[in-house]
Specification:
Blueprint (H helix, E strand, L loop, with lengths): L4 H4 L6 E4 L5 H11 L6 H9 L3 E7 L2 E11 L2 E9 L8 H15 L4 E6 L4 H9 L3 E12 L2 E11 L7
Parallel strand pairs: 4-5
Antiparallel strand pairs: 1-2, 2-3, 3-4, 5-7, 6-7
Length: 164
């Protein structure tokens, strides 16, 4: 049986690296293009300043996505994950989330949480495939064009990684 052309498509090599202050304009641009109510460049700057885990998806020197995670009190909170529109559905978002979860587990964190809009079905499917389970709803959590939108709260139990 011959492989379909899309099965032969190679996924380009992407590097996940710490986000730098120099990346903020590009990160904010991706955010602006992706969301009706985006984070500002200053919010990303504050995330770097306070020491959150801030990662950039770097494809040949171009930022194509990013992830922000806070760690504390034995928990990880995935605050923002985004991949540039033309690079979605190729596996980059999954790779980035797996990286963040590995970092959390290596830091001794036992649980990871995130919120997602009920209208973001692609993200919900990805989170479920990664083992996140719904634990609640936050009413009116997100800004929306007609007022507020709820958030689905998801949780994943992590296997804590210990250094040998």
């Amino acid at each position: 049986m011959a492989a379909a052309p899309e099965d032969l498509r190679e996924v380009p090599e992407v590097h996940i690296r710490p986000m730098l202050e120099l990346d903020l304009a590009e990160v904010a641009s991706i955010e602006q293009q992706s969301y009706a109510f985006p984070w500002s460049e200053n919010i990303f700057r504050d995330c770097l300043r306070v020491g959150y885990t801030c990662r950039a998806l770097d494809l040949s020197g171009q930022i194509i996505g990013y992830g922000i995670m806070s760690l504390g009190a034995g928990e990880a909170h995935i605050l923002n994950v985004c991949v540039r529109d033309e690079y979605r559905t190729v596996g980059f978002g999954r790779r980035l989330l797996e990286h963040l979860l590995e970092r959390a587990a290596a830091a001794g964190v036992g649980e990871a949480f995130l919120e997602v809009r009920p209208s973001n079905l692609a993200a919900i499917r990805l989170y479920q495939r990664l083992g996140f389970e719904q634990i609640g709803i936050r009413r009116g959590y997100y800004q929306a064009p007609d007022g507020r939108e709820d958030a689905i709260v998801l949780k994943k139990t992590l296997g804590i990684l210990r250094a040998p």
